[in-house]
Amino acid sequence: MHKYSNTICSLILSAAILGGCYLLAERGEDKPDPAIQEQKVSEDKSILTESELADYLGITRSELQDILELDRKKRGNFNGNVYDTYSFLPRMELPNRSYIFLKSEIEKWVEYHSSKLD
Question: Across the strands, what pairs with 61?
Fold first, then answer.
């Protein structure tokens, strides 16, 4: 019996390792990648929060805050003159002083500003 103990232990150890690898592989397939899930949420949503808009535009949240602050200053200096529809970032202010954005309007705003670069 002592003669086969090393072989039996090796077989048991191998089976345990293979079984563990199988279980880990199965568990990994069920978990969605958070980055993919976040991207899917943004694609499906028509109304975006500030952080979602920053992700959608590929900028940092502080860069978005800079754009909003610049817009606030431009609106303050507006004085009722004629302006292009998408001169300002289209947004709606909520009672808690945060903003939400319509994705379709943001796309038009980006298109307007990219055509100005040409």
Answer: none
Measured CA angle at 28 (ends 27, 31), to 5 deg = 95
Return the SS3 of 61.
helix
Tally DSSP H helices, then E strands, for the chain. 5, 3
Tokens 């903003």, residue?
99
Question: How do residues 46-71 score in pLDDT, each as one tens digit?
Answer: 999 999 999 999 999 999 999 999 98
Pairing relationship of beta strands 92-93 and 47-49 according to DSSP bridges: unpaired
CA 54 – CA 12 distance, rounded (Å) = 53
Outline where 45-90 has alpha helix (H): 50-57, 61-76
Question: Where are the extended beta strands (E) located within the chain?
Answer: 47-49, 92-93, 99-102
Summarised one tens digit per residue, pLDDT across range 91-104 is: 998 999 889 999 99
Q: What is the DSSP letter of 33?
A: P
CA 88, CA 110: separation in Å to the nearest integer? 11
pTM here is 0.57
